[in-house]
Amino acid sequence: MTIKEIGNELKKIYKERKSWSGAKGPFTEPVIRLKELILIKQQILYRIEDAKLLKDKREESFNSTLYRIIDSDIINISSKGNKI
């Protein structure tokens, strides 16, 4: 994942999080989990970016693996019709 790709993913997350303001509850458990995963995904992207800038291949690899896991969970939860 390049720095540009990370930036693009972060922009998508910022847009998604902005849409959360004004949302009315109560929220279902899957929707809460989806929001949690999106926040975790954002943090992991920051870590990947930092690792790239510091040229720490081990940290980058570890966080890239976490990113793929989190992203697949987000896709799985979203595909079941859980919308925020």
Tell me briefly what this model is.
The protein is built from three helices and no strands. The chain is mainly α and about 80 residues long.
Write structural notes for this entry.
With 84 residues, this protein is mainly alpha-helical. It has one domain. The chain has 3 helices and no strands. Helix 1 runs antiparallel to helix 2 (29-54) and helix 2 (29-54) runs antiparallel to helix 3 (57-79). The longest helix has 26 residues, at 29-54. It is elongated, with a radius of gyration of 14 Å. The model has no long low-confidence stretch (mean pLDDT 92).
Mean pLDDT: 92
User: H/E element string?
Assistant: HHH
Q: pLDDT below 50 for ≥5 consecutive residues: which ranges?
A: none
Give the beta-strand count.
0
How would the blueprint of this fold be written?
Elements: H1 3-20, H2 29-54, H3 57-79
Considering the chains and any ligands shown, give keywords for the structure.
single chain; 84 residues; mainly alpha; 3 helices
